[in-house]
Dipeptidase
Amino acid sequence: MCDTMVVPPAVSGGAMLFAKNSDREGSEAQVIEVHRRRRAAPGAMLHATYLSLPEVYETAAVLICRPYWMWGAEMGVNEHGLAIGNEAVFSRVRPAKDAAPALSGMDLVRLGLERARSAESAVAVITTLVERYGQGADGGHSRPFHYDSAFLIADSRDAFVVETAGQHWAVERVTGARAISNAYSIHGRFERLSGNAKAFAVERGWARADAPFDFARAFADPFRSFAARGRQRACRARGLIDAQAAKGSVHLRDLMGVLRDHGPRGHRAGWRPDGLLPSSICAHGGHGPARRAAQTTMSLVAALDRALSEIWATGGSAPCTALFRPFFIETGLPVAEPAPTDRADGACLWWRQERLHRAVIQDHGSRLALYAPARDALEVALMAEIERARAAAADRPAAERRHLLSQVGQAAWTVAEDALARWTRIAEDGPIARRPGALFRYHWRHLAKRAHTQPM
């Protein structure tokens, strides 16, 4: 289960800030990719995860984070400073057994990033595609998992929430800090609504024709929404952001802290990352009913700017154990690596970070404490260096700017890799004073067997 949030300039005191934790199955590796602009010939077709659709003449350059096996993306940023992230939400609308292939929520994220230059235009792209092709295609990795999607869409000036149920949708403009999760949140304050959404709900007895229309109340499946714990996590994220805003401003480091949050109990001595329901923003998997989407497998934060967005991502699981690294769309990735799969492979960043994650969760409190202060200090130093580089690059010719940013990005990658290797050795050698519960250990032994890696 995922969590996405945005902090507008009026709240942050600076840029529009965007952040997301992508929660998927354990061992469902994700890859960070940069795709350049591309042009297509008339009549060219684009092959998404499950269906093909007409390509557009030109796409934007994008940085995306996607599960290794699908075309679509969990989240991303494009060259115009547009960011999109999606959430699984659970509606009463059930796809017909003989329904045609549809788009997944992740397909819609990537299509919005590639085809739009602003948040407003991304809303139009996504809602048009939902009405034409439908959505809710299978998003499961090891077994089928169908759901509808909610989207948080932001650029440097505007932000919107789009929520869908089948081919129906609602749009709400964001006016303050906003967090969405695995629960419908658009009630009666929608700015736009698909043409027959209310009539469809009234026909099925989910709404009254003579009463104000509440999109969330009409379409949400109450049982699955409760099990996903999305409302609780969204409230927690919003509370943390509001508390920081009350101090005067909100920065990217603050959103990194929100993505690392384990809830009120996470600060208590002896806290362990196990449990049956996905109740914390930073999730570590488990054997509960939401285990198919209960591990944070990638995290991203960004300060959105049409000229040069500031983008940071973990490259792997569990932001509480990971270092956020800088990325620039115009320079591409600092290092070329093979794409990961669901089999352990130390040549891939995702699996190198996963090795550290799996070492830490054997005794989260004790082992994380061995290197977290050094991680935090390095993150602060890297952010200061990137800020200096962005300022220096602002007025340079394009070629010089790319060269400068490329050098800084590669240097940051080298430092991050050295630190990751060192912290992994420290964590693996650390003592274990308090192991997780038996069901949690069973879950992770099962994942280790599937990934051909060392068991917990």
